[in-house]
């Protein structure tokens, strides 16, 4: 799989920025990042199921670890929800900005994989359920038409 396109990367950064806004302590930043993936799990598992989401997340983690080796110290699992064990430690060692960038890259890979599997339109419609202010629009973005 090629890297997510710039639009997906920008949306992923936007989501992460919203989820960690106002958080400074490593545990709080980690909670914001995990919260984004939990929300994504809630909206996407309604269509692809928990096992499908876990498969997509596992593949995305594998793809992201190549570009963000610090993520390797974080154990990302998905059962009834998404857990990112060790994320606070990664933030303490590498700083919040690096961890947020890695999380945005991971989110971008998840969105790109989902777009490939269930289609871009459905993926973006579901993303808008989780983040109603999601920027973008136009053809193939899942934006509601008036």
Compute the number of strand runs.
Answer: 2
Alpha-carbon distance between the two ends: 34 Å
Number of helices: 5
Q: What composes the largest sheet?
A: 2 strands, antiparallel
Number of domains: 1
The amount of helix comes to: 55-70%
Q: Reading side by side through the largest sheet, how are the strands ordered?
A: 1-2
**Strand content range:** 5-15%
Any low-confidence stretches, pLDDT <50, length ≥5?
Answer: 137-142
The mean pLDDT is 87
Q: Please identify the structural class as seen in this structure.
A: mainly alpha
Radius of gyration: 14 Å
Listing every helix as H and every strand as E from the N terminus to the C terminus, the arrangement reads HHEEHHH
Shape field: globular
Transmembrane segments: 96-119
Keywords: Membrane, Transmembrane, Transmembrane helix
């Amino acid at each position: 799989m090629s890297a997510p396109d710039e639009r997906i990367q920008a949306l992923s950064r936007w989501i992460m920025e919203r989820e960690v806004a106002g958080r400074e302590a490593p545990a709080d930043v980690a909670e914001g990042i995990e919260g984004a993936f939990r929300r994504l799990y809630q909206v996407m598992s309604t269509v692809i199921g928990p096992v499908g989401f876990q498969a997509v997340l596992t593949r995305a983690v594998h793809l992201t670890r190549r570009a963000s080796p610090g993520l390797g110290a974080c154990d990302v699992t998905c059962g009834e929800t998404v857990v990112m064990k060790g994320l606070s430690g990664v933030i303490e060692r590498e700083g919040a900005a690096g961890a947020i960038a890695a999380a945005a890259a991971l989110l971008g890979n998840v969105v790109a994989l989902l777009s490939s599997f269930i289609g871009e339109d459905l993926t973006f419609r579901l993303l808008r359920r989780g983040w109603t202010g999601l920027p973008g629009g136009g053809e193939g973005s899942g934006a509601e038409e008036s």
